[in-house]
Amino acid sequence: MGGFSLGEFLLIAVLCLVFLDPKDAGRLWGKFQRLKRQLLDVTDSVKGQLQESVKDPEMGAILETRDWWSETDPAVLRRWAKERLAFLDGDKFAQASEQIKARALEWSVWQDASDIALYVATPREFPTDSLIGLALVQGKRIWLPRVTGPTSMEMVRVAGPGDLVPGRFGIMEPRPDLAAPASVPKGLLVIAPGLVFDHHGHRIGKGKGFYDRWFAANPDAVRAGLCFDVQVHPARLEPGPHDMPMHHLLTEYRLESF
């Protein structure tokens, strides 16, 4: 409106209604009402998209505390995800975990995969132990990451919990005596954790770059992010130069492919 404020616009509208011919004023008023409805429709659409991203009303306040839509600092976005995860406790955490597990088992990509790489969860991540057990019962070959250096890892096939020992960061990983193959099966479905995801396949991990480096060295792997829905950012994340985008994203509410 050329720099006019809303108040100035309304004042001009009133003056026009006073001095214009009643018929012209009526037509202008009708156009104004249609414009108002269009603006309200746009506002409702944006609110609807935000509410779709924030399923729990208690969490909506977190998005309103700052301009998260334009935030690009990975460290800040990690804190954003951790704040939202703090609301997901007790029954909510258990219910969301069950929904993720059910959605994964119904997913055609999961069902068609013979080899699946998962991860051993930390306390605030989706608990993968039951999913690993069910995959083994289904006859699938399970692979888990093993840290090999400060920023590197490898995938090792395991047969069950007895193949795991505490690793470099205290997380259970394949025993050192289990040899990693020179290459993993082509099309290996890799379920990757992360702190933040978006609707375009971008992912923010914990900052070490383990998965990004492994994905870069194994481009034939099918990359699938797994997280709780509260970790999905409503805006497009800014990927780093070495970030590897996901092919799929799985949460308790959505299954997206990119």
Q: TL;DR of this structure?
A:
The protein has 258 residues and is of the alpha/beta class. Helix content is 40%, strand content 16%. The chain contains eight helices and eleven strands.
Write a structural description.
This protein folds into two domains: 6-53; 68-257, NagB/RpiA/CoA transferase-like (Rossmann fold, 3-Layer(aba) Sandwich), CATH 3.40.50.10420. A hairpin with a 4-residue loop joins strand 10 and strand 11 (255-257). The chain is α/β, with parallel strands linked by helices. Helix 1 runs antiparallel to helix 2 (22-53). The protein has helices at 6-19, 22-53, 57-64, 74-85, 91-106, 108-112, 129-137, 210-217; strands at residues 115-117, 141-147, 153-158, 164-166, 172-174, 189-192, 196-197, 203-204, 222-226, 248-250, 255-257. Helices cover 40% and strands 16% of the residues. Mean pLDDT is 84; it is low at 42-51 and 53-59. The protein has eight helices and eleven strands. It has a seven-stranded mixed β-sheet, with helices on both faces. Strands 4-5 form a two-stranded antiparallel sheet.
Please state the average pLDDT score: 84
CATH homologous superfamily of the largest domain - what is it? NagB/RpiA/CoA transferase-like
| Radius of gyration based on Cα positions | 25 Å
Helix-strand string: HHHHHHEHEEEEEEEHEEE
CATH top-level class of the largest domain: Alpha Beta
Give a short account of the largest sheet. Answer: 7 strands, mixed
Strand order of the largest sheet: 3-2-1-6-9-10-11
Write the CATH architecture name of the largest domain.
3-Layer(aba) Sandwich
Q: What's the total number of strands?
A: 11
